[in-house]
Protein backbone atom coordinates (compact mmCIF):
# COMPACT_ATOMS: atom_id res chain seq x y z
CA UNK A 1 0.00 0.00 0.00
CA UNK A 2 2.75 2.45 0.98
CA UNK A 3 4.67 1.63 -2.18
CA UNK A 4 1.65 2.41 -4.37
CA UNK A 5 1.07 5.76 -2.64
CA UNK A 6 4.64 7.08 -2.60
CA UNK A 7 5.80 5.67 -5.99
CA UNK A 8 9.44 6.18 -4.97
CA UNK A 9 10.56 2.55 -4.51
CA UNK A 10 10.57 2.80 -0.70
CA UNK A 11 8.53 1.82 2.31
CA UNK A 12 7.80 3.47 5.63
CA UNK A 13 10.71 3.77 8.05
CA UNK A 14 8.72 1.73 10.55
CA UNK A 15 9.47 -1.27 8.31
CA UNK A 16 13.21 -0.92 9.06
CA UNK A 17 14.77 -3.38 11.46
CA UNK A 18 15.31 -1.88 14.90
CA UNK A 19 19.05 -2.64 15.06
CA UNK A 20 19.82 -0.55 11.95
CA UNK A 21 20.42 3.18 12.26
CA UNK A 22 21.08 4.01 8.59
CA UNK A 23 17.97 2.41 7.09
CA UNK A 24 16.17 4.62 4.55
CA UNK A 25 13.28 2.28 3.75
CA UNK A 26 14.55 1.73 0.23
CA UNK A 27 13.41 -1.45 -1.49
CA UNK A 28 16.86 -1.77 -3.07
CA UNK A 29 18.14 -3.02 0.32
CA UNK A 30 15.54 -5.61 1.39
CA UNK A 31 17.84 -7.08 4.06
CA UNK A 32 17.36 -3.86 6.09
CA UNK A 33 13.56 -4.30 6.17
CA UNK A 34 11.23 -6.59 8.05
CA UNK A 35 9.87 -9.25 5.72
CA UNK A 36 6.55 -9.67 7.54
CA UNK A 37 3.86 -7.11 8.22
CA UNK A 38 2.93 -6.09 11.75
CA UNK A 39 -0.83 -6.59 11.43
CA UNK A 40 -0.67 -10.30 12.27
CA UNK A 41 1.55 -9.58 15.28
CA UNK A 42 -0.80 -6.87 16.57
CA UNK A 43 -3.84 -9.12 16.13
CA UNK A 44 -2.10 -11.98 17.96
CA UNK A 45 -1.10 -9.70 20.86
CA UNK A 46 -4.63 -8.30 21.14
CA UNK A 47 -6.06 -11.83 21.22
CA UNK A 48 -3.70 -12.73 24.07
CA UNK A 49 -4.74 -9.63 26.01
CA UNK A 50 -8.42 -10.36 25.39
CA UNK A 51 -7.98 -13.88 26.79
CA UNK A 52 -6.72 -12.38 30.06
CA UNK A 53 -9.66 -9.99 30.15
CA UNK A 54 -12.13 -12.82 29.46
CA UNK A 55 -10.64 -15.02 32.21
CA UNK A 56 -10.73 -12.11 34.66
CA UNK A 57 -14.38 -11.43 33.80
CA UNK A 58 -15.27 -15.11 34.22
CA UNK A 59 -13.49 -15.21 37.57
CA UNK A 60 -15.35 -12.11 38.73
CA UNK A 61 -18.67 -13.62 37.56
CA UNK A 62 -17.93 -16.85 39.45
CA UNK A 63 -17.24 -14.89 42.64
CA UNK A 64 -20.49 -12.96 42.17
CA UNK A 65 -22.47 -16.18 41.67
CA UNK A 66 -20.88 -17.71 44.76
CA UNK A 67 -21.86 -14.62 46.76
CA UNK A 68 -25.44 -14.81 45.51
CA UNK A 69 -25.60 -18.50 46.40
CA UNK A 70 -24.33 -17.80 49.92
CA UNK A 71 -26.90 -15.01 50.33
CA UNK A 72 -29.70 -17.36 49.23
CA UNK A 73 -28.56 -20.03 51.69
CA UNK A 74 -28.51 -17.52 54.55
CA UNK A 75 -31.93 -16.19 53.56
CA UNK A 76 -33.43 -19.70 53.46
CA UNK A 77 -31.92 -20.64 56.82
CA UNK A 78 -33.16 -17.43 58.41
CA UNK A 79 -36.77 -18.46 57.94
CA UNK A 80 -36.21 -21.87 59.58
CA UNK A 81 -33.63 -21.15 62.28
CA UNK A 82 -34.44 -18.90 65.26
CA UNK A 83 -30.76 -17.91 65.49
CA UNK A 84 -31.28 -15.75 62.39
CA UNK A 85 -34.03 -13.57 63.83
CA UNK A 86 -33.90 -9.81 63.64
CA UNK A 87 -32.10 -7.95 66.42
CA UNK A 88 -34.57 -5.05 66.35
CA UNK A 89 -37.70 -5.76 68.40
CA UNK A 90 -40.85 -5.30 66.38
CA UNK A 91 -38.92 -5.05 63.10
CA UNK A 92 -40.29 -6.33 59.85
CA UNK A 93 -38.71 -8.94 57.67
CA UNK A 94 -37.21 -7.78 54.41
From TrEMBL:
InterPro entries xrefs: Tetraspanin/Peripherin
- Keywords assigned: Membrane, Transmembrane, Transmembrane helix
The membrane spanning regions, by residue number, are 49-76
Q: Which GO terms describe its cellular component?
A: membrane
The membrane topology term of the UniProt record is: Multi-pass membrane protein
Q: Give the UniProt subcellular location, in the record's own words.
A: Membrane
Query: In the UniProt record, does the keyword Transmembrane helix occur?
Result: yes
For the keyword Transmembrane helix, the answer is yes
Query: Superkingdom of this entry's organism?
Result: Eukaryota
Q: What is this protein called?
A: Tetraspanin
Q: What is the lineage of its organism?
A: Eukaryota, Metazoa, Chordata, Craniata, Vertebrata
